[in-house]
Amino acid sequence: MLKVADVNITRKLTLSDSAGVSGILGPNAFIINHKLFDINYIEYKVPIGNTEIWEITSSSIFGHPFHIHDVEFNIISINGAAPDPALAGWKDVVFIPGRNGGGPGNPGTPSVVKFIAKFEDYADALHPFMYHCHISLHEDEGMMGQFVVVGSPTDVDDKNKDAFLFSVYPNPTSNKLFIHFSDPSQSAYYIKIIDVLGRGK
Ligand SMILES: [Cu+2]
Asked: Is the dihedral of CA 144, 136, 66, 158 positive or negative?
């Protein structure tokens, strides 16, 4: 399980209802961060290796299953309460309940769900990761966003950088990569190499 103490940033997302949208569900649609999906827009640039809390506040009248690509996450809380045991494991979807109460002229009480995730796979703007409502109709109508995970493909996890001495060269490279270790007290290393599309080797 991921630790809140390791969190680099809390990202705050919103789910809400919108009127005046054209499309198969128009004029009403459900939206993330106050806008419909735009394939030319990247919402977040996540530094590779980041541990993050995503806090999703929903004023939608409807519940939405929120799905994210790339990572599995641990749910921290649903409307302030710790998750039930069945929801305490690794997840890639979490149900965001609709707002509590509300009606004409009354916004009700929004729902708030928090989860924690670690982003370890690189993704550029050509092949970004998505997050979206897992109800296909809502997703197709634009309830989706994109993020990239940035950092040099031969970048080094900052947390471990000072734990031992080494150098990587040439950087960047498209063929041979040399890793030189100069810490005499270490006898074994674990190295994870991914390509620019986030695929392990
Ligand atoms: Cu939805």
From this structure: negative
Tokens found for residue 32? 């993330």
Widest distance between CA atoms in the chain: 70
Centre of ligand 1 to C-alpha 65, Å, is 6
Dihedral sign for Cα 200, 178, 46, 55, please. Answer: positive
For residue 132, what are its two tokens? 């979206």
For the whole prediction, is pTM greater than 0.90?
A: no
Averaged pLDDT score across all residues of the chain: 87
Ligand 1 centre distance from Cα of residue 144 (Å): 9
CATH of domain 4-150: 2.60.40.420
Segment holding 148, helix H or strand E:
strand 144-150
Summarised one tens digit per residue, pLDDT across range 124-136 is: 888 999 999 999 9
Q: How far is the CA of 135 from the centre of ligand 1 (A)?
A: 5
Neighbour count for residue 56 (Cβ, 10 Å): 22
d(CA 121, CA 119): 6
Q: Where are the beta strands (DSSP E) in 9-143?
A: 9-18, 29-32, 44-47, 51-58, 64-68, 73-78, 93-96, 111-118, 129-133
Q: Output the CA 138–ligand 1 centroid distance in Å.
A: 5
Residue 60 has pLDDT above 60, yes or no: yes
**Annotated domain spans of the chain:** 4-150, 153-201
Residue of higher predicted confidence among 27 and 173:
27
